[in-house]
Write a structure and sequence with these properties.
Layout lengths: L5 H23 L14 H37 L3 H12 L9 H14 L14 H17 L2 H18 L2 H83 L5 H29 L16 H10 L4 E4 L8 H21 L5 E7 L3 E8 L15 H12 L3 E6 L5 E8 L13
Parallel strand pairs: 1-2
Antiparallel strand pairs: 2-3, 3-5, 4-5
Length: about 425
């Protein structure tokens, strides 16, 4: 005769180990206390229980004690037992019901042992060798155990329960008693399975609802980004395109222009075209979640010199004090460059003709940036009180890196922007990507 396949032997061995593990837990293993948060779920019942439990619990204890005395009196009257024996058996068969909520497995173990002891002095002709209170309480304990315990433990509890049944109940009633006990276990186990399935279903529904909410939020963000991209395309990109076209066609429309002016128009057209390319890339990112991040090379702090030169060619009387450090890169260098760029743009817009001074220093621990302009010349109108989007954007950049920013009027009537950035920071913004 051939041996069974190895996989089948492994399955059998696994089943045996699981079965022995469940038997061990049923006899001496860990109990099944109530799980926190899985008590009374209905609000009205929970409120009622919290309100009346201080009265209900003592009454229940007194009722169990009274039924224990009744069981003792029954044993004394029907079996002629002494007061001591009947009292011990009466209370030992009823008091385990008080453990059924917090320790159902312990309650079953005590009650199971009492199935052997409770038949003491029973008459051979009795249909039930136990007192009525013991039978009712044991049925409740079986139901409570099946509602809380694992299926394997419940199966072993049922099998062990049948031992005293077939030992002490006459053959005519043993099968009926066994069926009654098994029905309580099966009923409790099925209710437990149904509750678990309902709990799993509610968890899945909650997870699906959460996913649906996240998807709705993601869709709303994408729609808002698309709207912003559309507005930027219709307004900003259109005007940038017109600037580039006018600058490129100016030498042809105005043939009397000198060569320096023609070069200036060509520079303006090139800057406008470069701005349009960056705008198109930004619009592509705004319109799609799957669009790649902007990874084109970004300006560094060393390029501030070129930025100042470009502003000077555009007519801004700007001077650069000191030497721009060339050993600062990454997010700190990019942020410092953007601060100078925005501050120069603000000075040209709000203080045309005023002298502007730019200073960038690096002392090894921090990078300091300061852009200051004098009082606007002529009848230029100063900016309205409060921060615009430019100042707010600069402040966000600096805060992200753990630095400080101060912006406001000077005592001489001008305006100054001063920022201090830590020289060494974690790359909060990926290198090469604009913040």
């Amino acid at each position: 005769m051939s041996e069974p396949p190895r996989s089948l032997r492994m399955v059998n061995e696994s089943l045996v180990r699981v079965s022995l593990r469940d038997l061990r837990r049923a006899l001496i293993g860990k109990d099944y206390p109530p799980v926190p948060g899985q008590g009374i779920r209905r609000p009205r019942l929970r409120r009622w229980w919290l309100r009346w439990r201080s009265l209900v619990v003592p009454l229940a204890v007194l009722g169990v004690l009274g039924l224990g005395a009744t069981a003792a009196q029954y044993l004394e009257d029907s079996r002629g037992q002494t007061d001591l024996v009947s009292t011990i058996i009466g209370y030992a068969t009823t008091l385990p019901i008080l453990l059924v909520f917090h320790r159902p497995l312990l309650a079953w173990r005590i009650s199971w042992v009492m199935l052997f002891v409770g038949v003491l002095d029973a008459k051979p002709g009795d249909s039930w060798p136990w007192n009525p209170t013991q039978i009712v309480f044991f049925l409740i304990i079986l139901l409570a155990l099946a509602l809380r315990a694992d299926t394997g433990v419940v199966a072993w509890a049922g099998a062990l329960t049948l031992i005293p049944v077939f030992l002490h109940v006459d053959s005519a009633n043993a099968w009926g008693v066994s069926v009654l006990f098994m029905l309580m276990l099966i009923l409790g186990n099925q209710i437990r399975r149904w509750r678990l399935s309902q709990h799993e279903l509610s968890e899945r529904l909650a997870e699906q609802e959460e996913q649906s909410q996240l998807e709705q939020a993601r869709r709303a963000v994408l729609e808002e980004r698309t709207r912003i991209a559309r507005e930027m395309h219709d307004v900003v990109a259109h005007h940038m395109s017109m600037i580039a076209v006018q600058a490129e066609t100016a030498p042809f429309r105005l043939p009397e222009l000198d060569d320096p002016v023609r070069h200036e128009f060509a520079s303006i057209a090139g800057s406008a075209r470069a701005a349009m390319v960056d705008m198109r890339r930004l619009l592509g990112v705004l319109r799609s979640e799957q669009a790649p991040a902007l990874t084109a090379p970004q300006p560094e702090l060393a390029e501030v010199t070129e930025l100042v030169e470009a502003a000077r060619r555009a007519g801004v009387p700007v001077t650069l004090h000191g030497t721009v450090p060339d050993d600062v890169d990454g997010p700190v260098g990019l942020t410092a460059y953007r601060i100078v760029q925005e501050a120069l743009a603000n000075a040209a817009r709000h203080a045309p003709g005023a002298a502007v001074r730019v200073a960038v220093t690096h002392d090894g621990e921090s990078v300091a940036v300061r852009v200051e302009n004098d009082t606007p010349a002529g009848d230029a109108v100063p900016p309205a009180p409060g921060e615009g989007h430019g100042i707010a954007g600069m402040r966000e950049r600096v805060t992200l890196l753990g630095g400080t920013l101060e912006a406001g009027p000077t005592v001489f009537g001008g305006y100054a922007v001063a920022a201090t950035l830590p020289a060494a920071v974690l790359d909060a913004v990926p290198e090469g990507q604009d913040a």
